[in-house]
């Protein structure tokens, strides 16, 4: 961290394109991974790690995985159809500008993607439950926040606090200590703490 200018971003340290974060999570018995844009777009890596579900947390990042096109095509139409994974997207800003409800929605979306029952119809190409990858542009802030929130709420006996989950991810994602002050961004961590309180309130009132 630049002590003279603490708002200056830390140097970009190397990290794996995709990192295993948690193995054999309860109930679903799948693995959780975090990745950056290049790792997430690498279909060979997704296949290697048996990743069947991808949750993209970045509002400013789109990935085109279309391998089977649907419908008729014209010169002005972009590709649409199916790809190698079940793809979900949550549009987070990496810093201020989000609401705590969106962080909470990210947790529910991640959980619901694992619980979803896919119908046995030709239009649903990816029906198998497999490992889940949560990504953002660098795999160091937005995705870290959502996965930490998920680990804390789903496995509280192992991750009793949000900080405990973040500390685990910093190690397994191989984030350098010099960038910990922004991995994740403080604004996102604060919103995640609010999301935990919102979730607990809903659970106390038996609304979930």
From TrEMBL:
Highest taxon above the source species: Bacteria
Domain Tyrosine specific protein phosphatases intervals: 132-173
Classification via InterPro entries: Prot-tyrosine_phosphatase-like (IPR029021), Tyr_Pase_dom (IPR000387)
Listed name of the protein: Tyrosine specific protein phosphatases domain-containing protein
Organism: Vibrio tritonius
Lineage: Bacteria, Pseudomonadati, Pseudomonadota, Gammaproteobacteria, Vibrionales
């Amino acid at each position: 961290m630049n002590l003279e200018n603490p708002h200056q971003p830390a140097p970009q340290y190397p990290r794996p394109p995709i990192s295993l974060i948690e193995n054999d999570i309860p109930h679903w018995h799948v693995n959780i991974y975090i990745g950056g844009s290049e790792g997430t777009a690498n279909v060979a890596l997704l296949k290697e790690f048996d990743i069947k579900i991808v949750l993209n947390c970045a509002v400013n990042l789109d990935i085109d995985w279309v391998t089977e096109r649907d419908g008729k095509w014209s010169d002005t139409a972009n590709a649409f159809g199916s790809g190698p994974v079940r793809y979900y997207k949550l549009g987070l800003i990496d810093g201020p500008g989000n609401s705590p409800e969106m962080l909470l929605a990210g947790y529910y979306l991640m959980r619901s993607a694992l619980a979803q029952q896919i119908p046995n119809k030709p239009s649903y190409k990816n029906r198998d439950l497999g490992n889940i990858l949560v990504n953002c542009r660098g795999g160091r802030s937005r995705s870290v926040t959502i996965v930490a929130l998920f680990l804390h709420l789903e496995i509280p006996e192992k991750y009793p606090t949000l900080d405990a989950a973040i500390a685990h991810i910093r190690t397994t994602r191989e984030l350098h200590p010099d960038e910990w002050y922004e991995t994740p961004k403080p604004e996102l961590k604060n919103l995640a703490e609010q999301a935990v309180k919102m979730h607990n309130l809903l659970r106390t009132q038996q609304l979930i």
